Known about the structure:
The strands form 2 sheets. This protein has a 4-stranded mixed sheet, sandwiched between helices. A 3-stranded mixed sheet has the order 2-7-6, with no helix packed on it. The chain is of the alpha/beta class. The chain is globular and about 55 Å long. It contains 9 helices and 7 strands; from the N terminus they run ααββαββαααββαβαα. The two termini are about 15 Å apart.
Amino acid sequence: MMSKRYKTELLDLLDGDKKFNSITHVLYMDVDIVIAEPLKSFVGYVQGMSRMLSQPSYSQYQSWMLMFEEQGAAPERRFGNTVYHGGVLGLHRKRSRGCLAEWQKLFDDRERFPDRDQKALYYMLYMNETLRAKCEVVRLDHRPYLLMPSKKTMESGETSTFVHVTNGYRAEKIRDALQADYYRCLARVDEEYAMSMNRFEVIVEDR
């Protein structure tokens, strides 16, 4: 869980170096996100969303973050509210600070939130009115930008801007050979070279 806390420090890291002073927006991705399509369309989309949120009609938002809705399983779904995917974040240099600061405080509460960033975020958005007033999560449309690959999408070769690689419960349902071939194609690695280097062995995490 502590490694996931680092994303809440992104804007503080930028502040530590003057050469980053001109940066106004930040895109965060988890380490297991593969960029499979050009980013130009998504960057334009995020910039447009940011301009919209800068309008007076959204002035009630003290702070905001841009996030995709979770496409995989999440325990919080049983409560009926939108669950957000923490693997990709769109952040504004000034307007996202409040959200990150409050989320970070919950990360540090290891007793209540020991293992899942989504659980802490869900609490902030739906279970604490004080925190809810301090942060607004604005949903990004996941199509065509986010894909949680399944057996069906791997067999069809479907991609998106961001493909969330998995070695958990979804991977257990997909043949290793199919996964290896799919990710090799995403990485645009020649099959003969990949096999000779033995770089595409699929490792499924034991649960």
